[in-house]
Write a structure and sequence with these properties.
The complex is a heterodimer of chains A (about 290) and B (about 325). Helices cover about 70% and strands about 0% of the residues of chain A. With about 290 residues, chain A is an all-alpha fold. The chains are: A mainly alpha (about 290), B mainly alpha (about 325).
């Protein structure tokens, strides 16, 4: 009893301290992004002279000038649309191809399964840079450079092995009795996949879809390599061109478009916050 | 039975299917369906992964500019690397980046996870706020922001001016400091290893701490004797994952230096140099050789991590 009475205040005080530290840390973490948001609403000449987070003079001018900064008919709308197409294509591809592969690995009879499984895991760790040159040559020889195909088609061929692994883990946790019961009802492996396994794997499919979207949306390297004309630029490549064309002279429009480009990621985060943070804790997501 | 026949399992073909079912032993049939489901993956594996890997291995022994046919030059690309000052710069910069950013990121992640594991109120909010940078951090937008933060009139210098330190130049334009701004950017994205640590901490049974408390262990020795050993598998997992990721970092260095890797190659990440050689100068052979060296380096580091894990990663007996 006595130990409790002594221990209590000692335990309580650090908790307040921890809260203070965590809040200070959180403010420091978020400050740069909040600052950019605020700067995007400041007049160009006030971005560096007005240090406050609430703009003294509030303007939408940066959004107007930024939107039309690069010469495309729809302004930045073109790049948003392109990024959207690529990301949605990648999501559809990954969800279909990775779930098929995962089902084979997790549930079907497969000769040499340990071998294929080991190869699959090996490709998770394979750096993209090790294969990008021949991939470029391959896509160039079939005339796919300057199209979205090099960014979308590989996803339909389950090249993001990480998501296969994630789905395998999930499917393995589903009870085996399901398969037996389905088999008794005369349900073949294809219908078992479509009617039983796939619906039950929904959480893993949603996690895959969200991360594929976010990672494709902000992926820069492959989009930089495969897209060479302004009309089919995606957002990251367009932002880079914008940065190079304005240099350090006009940050307002650049910040405004940067903020807009982050909005979808932020939206996904707000909508699926729990699923994302918990999905990572349980599966060990990279990133 | 062939794959097309499986797909054609409509009403009309049903009878035929039943006959075929009897013909083929169940094991073979199941294997066929298994491989049918793996077909897209196999296509991708051979055409987009293994094929290109062998392709880049071949190209690494050639001189190839995309215009004329590859010309076999033996080991010349690999020999040239050792006298290529920029290649050595890239190695050095990448080494600094990996060696500093990974431990820093993991240390911060572990520290915050430990603080969050105290059963605090508002855990969900903290977790969310600390995780967001992990989602945003890889984007071009954030790299643009970083370039400004550490620029001459950036937030950092403004903050230092408030503390009375004036007249500092840009941190990204100074070759002595530029790579450290990128290390800070990496550390800023500690959210996902933090979440993995947090999940690991929750697995440690509370009775262990209670038992240690009865034995008179203080919080510090509890951490050293219980938390840290039980967390080593997760530290290992995070270490390997972050290390592989750090070797492949590209976007921030590209944006901060406008693709040049400057000033004076101080942000010339290995991948950025591959990009310059392959897609700037179209030295496809040299770029392929560099890519294979990177692959070897990553494989070597991963192997070292796995071998050393025997000595410091602690697995509980129950598992």
């Amino acid at each position: 009893m006595r130990t409790y009475q002594v221990a209590r205040p000692v335990v309580r005080w650090p908790k307040v301290l921890i809260h203070i530290c965590l809040i200070v840390g959180a403010v420091l973490m978020m400050y740069p992004v909040v600052w950019m948001l605020s700067a995007s609403f400041k007049p160009e000449n006030a971005i560096f002279s007005d240090p406050g987070l609430l703009p003294k003079q509030f303007t939408f001018q940066n959004y107007v000038s930024g939107w039309t900064a690069l010469a495309t008919p729809l302004g930045f709308g073109t790049f948003f649309w392109n990024s959207f197409l690529v990301s949605v294509g990648a999501v559809i591809g990954n969800v279909i191809s990775c779930s098929m592969a995962a089902y084979a690995f997790a549930r079907l009879k497969l000769k040499f399964r340990p071998l294929w499984f080991a190869i699959m895991l090996g490709t998770v760790m394979l750096p993209y840079h090790a294969i990008v040159v021949p991939q470029y040559i391959l896509f160039k020889s079939v005339g796919w450079i300057n199209t979205f195909l090099p960014l979308i088609v590989p996803k339909f061929l389950a090249t993001d092995a990480f998501f296969i692994f994630l789905m395998i883990q999930f499917m393995r946790s589903l009870p085996r009795e399901l398969d037996e019961a389905a088999k008794m009802d005369g349900c073949g492996p294809i219908r078992l996949f479509w009617r039983v396994i796939l619906p039950l794997t929904t959480p893993a499919l949603v996690t895959t879809a969200i991360f594929t979207f976010i990672w494709t949306w902000s992926d820069f390297f492959s989009q930089l390599i495969f897209l060479n004309t302004l009309q089919i630029y995606t957002l990251p490549v367009a932002l880079r061109t914008f940065l190079d064309s304005t240099g350090t002279s006009s940050y307002g429009g650049l910040f405004a478009m940067s903020i807009l480009s982050l909005l979808p990621i932020f939206g996904f985060f707000l909508a699926f916050q729990r699923l994302l943070t918990e999905g990572i804790s349980t599966t060990g997501m990279k990133g | 039975m062939s794959t097309t026949q499986v797909q054609a399992g409509q009403v009309g073909a049903n009878k035929k299917l039943q006959v075929e079912k009897r013909k083929l032993p169940l094991g073979v049939r199941e294997n066929l369906i298994g491989y049918l489901f793996l077909l897209p993956w196999f296509l991708g594996l051979f055409t987009l992964t293994i094929g290109p890997m062998l392709g880049s291995l071949y190209l690494s022994f050639t001189r190839y500019d995309l215009l004329s046919a590859p010309q076999w030059i033996g080991l010349q690309n690999f020999i040239a690397m050792f006298s290529d000052i920029r290649f050595l710069d890239a190695l050095r910069v990448t080494a600094i980046y990996v060696v500093l950013s990974v431990p820093l990121k993991l240390a911060v992640a572990l520290l915050v996870a430990l603080a969050l594991n105290k059963g605090l109120r508002g855990l969900g909010i903290y977790r969310a706020v600390y995780y967001v940078p992990s989602l945003l951090g890889g984007s071009v937008a954030i790299a643009i922001l970083w370039r400004q933060i550490f620029g001459q009139n950036g937030i950092v210098n403004q903050g230092l001016a408030l503390l009375g330190i004036h007249g500092l130049s840009s941190w990204v334009a100074d070759p002595n400091t530029s790579v450290y701004t990128l290390i800070i950017l990496a550390a800023w994205q500690f959210g996902s290893p933090m979440l993995i640590f947090l999940a690991g901490l929750k697995q440690i049974p509370g009775e262990m701490y209670e038992a240690a408390g009865i034995d008179g262990a203080g919080p510090f020795s509890k951490f050293l004797q219980i938390t840290l050993p039980l967390l080593t598998p997760i530290i290992f997992f995070n270490l390997v994952l972050q290390m592989i990721g750090a070797f492949q970092a590209f976007t921030p260095a590209f944006i901060v230096s406008s693709g040049s890797g400057g000033p004076y190659d101080s942000t010339l990440f290995y991948t950025l140099y591959i990009y310059q050689q392959g897609f700037g100068y179209f030295h496809m052979g040299y770029a392929s050789a560099m890519a294979w060296v990177l692959l070897m380096i990553i494989a070597l580091f991963t192997a070292v991590a796995f071998t050393s894990s025997r000595f410091w990663v602690f697995y509980q007996d129950e598992r």
